[in-house]
DNA sequence: ACGAGCTGTCATTGA
DNA sequence: CTTCAATGACAGCTC
């Protein structure tokens, strides 16, 4: 019996052993145990087929709703996500809606496709390298092998394309036009979407916004104009450009949505929750708010055009004596009195008796709370700042609309990527994103305080140039403090990076030195052992020679000398003496 | 949930 | 005395 059953058991057991061996070999490469499980894979294939069927069914249904929903989307330039076009005028819950947007996607019920499913469907439908490259890294988990972002073959195709920005943009536009994506994205937004007055074709709606992210790109406005409703253009040209410097007027246009969503109180509270009390008590501030409101009235009900951005984020408005206090007092970041602002004279404004708000770096850090939270808030308020200086510079130098749109659609694309270079692995990408996300905090603060310099200049300028630059502008105490802090932090950040780099190099150098010292020790030990052995051998030979010579010596009577009574001694001049041994007295 | 690694920031020190 | 780079320590974040 056993002999019969064994042959049946044996092969399967062997298979399992083989699988185990293979798995152990591959587990280091990230392969899961189930990769070798046939039934598991079969199940997976079945599941995928079933899912594809469902998706195909849904695709038909979703296509019908595409047109209606197409117009409701607006690309969030900061996150690259699609958000409802409009911001409800009320102060309620808009932040929550935005903040929970991603979660909302994930919480879709079975009727709607998940975002990953949408992206997978997109990848299957449009197996473009560019599209694959454009897919946010977080989606790669569900992307089928055909669009494997890590495929090396993607890279040449990506880099060889001379029209990369255009191609990328085209791919994005195709993605945007996909009904599945539209539907998927829209279903979550429908509820909070205010259709009144904001129903515009998405392309029309997006382009103007992209232009806002291109500093110094006023000339492009003519391009944007073609697809832009007249009221936008009028608003920009008339209301803004007269009071705001051209660069920032466009940049700041993003903020209004936030302002409209948060309202003055929420806006500041978002930044500086602790300052609420101060705000309430401050008379001039409310008057400033009045200014704000009046400006808001002047700029009629146009969502992209709002107030806070006008006076708080543009140097031009700074010189024109706009209600700066609100924007500057949020963050001195240096513990200096913000009261020093020439425009703020209200005694009631001071939180502390001495007129200082008591903002220190640590205070501001506390207000920042968890950097993730605050920075995401910053990101919502100042999405534009996520364009690095380099990116802005490159954009302003070479402003193809495709590149601009691409940048706006995915602002976190590195300039190198935008120029067609291959992407590093996702882990690195995420690290990069993280550092990028942390980077612009000071930039945002500088914008909020209307610092008329770039953070890059503040940090990297030599001392003399920096002082010269500072002397050319009249900055109030808060601004000076912030600039100093930015410079200090920036320098220190670089110093820390250098320090760590040096430390790592030291460690590597020490390890190398340790290795070589170990080798040296090994070599010396070996040499010592050899020499010791040689010495022993020479001693042996010397002893033999000694005995030989000694035995040949004879006294006057012809008798040999007794070794116990005499010994041979050798002097430096090669003379041999026969020396009687000293008698020991016991 | 926990720990490791990375990064930014602050405080301190010495040149 | 001031400025600045270097560095230890800490906190927050990601994996």
UniProtKB/TrEMBL annotation:
Record-linked InterPro entries: bZIP, bZIP_Maf, bZIP_sf, NFE2-like, TF_DNA-bd_sf
A GO molecular function held by the record: DNA-binding transcription factor activity, RNA polymerase II-specific
Domain called BZIP: residue spans: 482-545
Residue ranges that the Swiss-Prot or TrEMBL entry lists as coiled coil: 40-72, 500-541
Protein name: Nuclear factor erythroid 2-related factor 2
GO cellular component, one term: nucleus
Protein family (similarity comment): Belongs to the bZIP family. CNC subfamily.
Keyword Nucleus listed: yes
Keywords noted in UniProt: Activator, Coiled coil, DNA-binding, Nucleus, Transcription, Transcription regulation
Disordered: annotated span: 296-376, 412-445
Acidic residues biased stretches: 362-376
Gene Ontology terms describing biological process: cellular response to oxidative stress
Extent of Basic and acidic residues compositional bias: 426-445
Organism: Cyprinus carpio var. jian
Transcription regulation recorded as keyword: yes
Compositional bias per record (Low complexity), positions renumbered to this chain: 312-323
């Amino acid at each position: 019996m056993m002999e019969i059953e064994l042959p049946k058991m044996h092969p399967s057991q062997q298979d399992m052993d083989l699988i185990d061996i293979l798995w152990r070999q591959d587990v280091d490469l990230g392969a899961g145990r189930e990769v070798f499980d046939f039934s598991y894979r079969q199940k997976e294939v079945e599941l995928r087929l079933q899912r594809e069927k469902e998706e195909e069914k849904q695709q038909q249904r979703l296509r019908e709703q595409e047109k209606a929903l197409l117009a409701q989307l607006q690309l969030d330039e900061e996150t690259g996500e699609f958000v409802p076009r409009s911001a409800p005028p009320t102060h309620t819950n808009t932040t929550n809606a935005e903040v929970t947007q991603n979660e909302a996607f994930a919480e879709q019920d079975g009727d709607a496709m998940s975002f990953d499913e949408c992206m997978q469907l997109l990848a299957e439908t449009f197996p473009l390298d560019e599209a694959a490259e454009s897919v946010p890294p977080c989606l790669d988990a569900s992307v089928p092998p055909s669009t494997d972002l890590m495929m090396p073959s993607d890279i040449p195709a990506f880099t060889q394309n001379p029209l990369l920005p255009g191609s990328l943009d085209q791919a994005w536009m195709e993605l945007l036009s996909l009904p599945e994506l539209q539907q998927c994205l829209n279903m979550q937004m429908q509820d909070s979407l205010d259709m009144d007055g904001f129903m515009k074709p998405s392309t029309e709606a997006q382009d103007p916004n992209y232009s806002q992210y291109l500093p110094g790109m006023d000339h492009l406005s003519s391009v944007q104009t073609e697809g832009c409703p007249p009221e936008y253009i009028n608003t920009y040209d008339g209301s803004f450009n007269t009071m705001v410097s051209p660069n920032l007027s466009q940049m700041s246009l993003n903020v209004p949505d936030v302002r409209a969503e948060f309202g003055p109180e929420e806006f500041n509270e978002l930044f500086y929750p602790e300052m609420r009390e101060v705000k309430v008590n401050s008379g001039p501030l409310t008057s400033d708010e009045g200014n704000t409101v009046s400006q808001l009235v002047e700029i009629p009900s146009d969502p992209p055009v709002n107030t806070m951005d006008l006076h708080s984020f543009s140097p031009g408005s700074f010189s024109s004596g706009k209600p700066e206090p609100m924007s500057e007092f949020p963050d001195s970041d240096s513990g200096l009195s913000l009261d020093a602002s020439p425009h703020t004279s209200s005694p009631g404004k001071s939180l502390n008796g001495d007129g200082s708000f008591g903002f220190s770096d640590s205070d501001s850090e506390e207000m920042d709370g968890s950097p993730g939270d605050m920075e995401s808030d910053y990101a919502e308020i100042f999405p534009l700042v996520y364009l690095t200086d380099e990116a802005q510079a490159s954009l302003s130098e070479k402003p193809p609309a495709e590149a601009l749109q691409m940048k706006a659609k995915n602002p976190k694309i590195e300039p190198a990527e935008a120029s067609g270079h291959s992407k590093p692995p996702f882990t690195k990408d995420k690290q990069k994103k993280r550092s990028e996300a942390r980077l612009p905090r000071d930039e945002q603060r500088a914008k909020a305080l209307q610092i008329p310099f770039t953070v890059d200049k503040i940090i990297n300028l030599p001392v003399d140039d920096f002082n010269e630059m500072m002397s050319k502008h009249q900055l109030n105490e808060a601004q000076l403090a912030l600039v100093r802090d930015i410079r200090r932090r920036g320098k220190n950040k670089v110093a820390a990076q250098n320090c760590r780099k040096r430390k790592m190099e030291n460690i590597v150098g020490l390890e190398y030195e340790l290795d070589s010292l170990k080798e040296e020790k090994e070599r010396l030990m070996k040499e010592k052992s050899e020499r010791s052995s040689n010495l022993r051998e020479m001693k042996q030979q010397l002893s033999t020679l000694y005995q030989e010579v000694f035995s040949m010596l004879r006294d006057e009577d012809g008798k040999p000398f007794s070794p116990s009574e005499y010994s041979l001694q050798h002097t430096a001049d090669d003379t041999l003496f026969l020396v009687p041994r000293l008698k020991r007295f016991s």
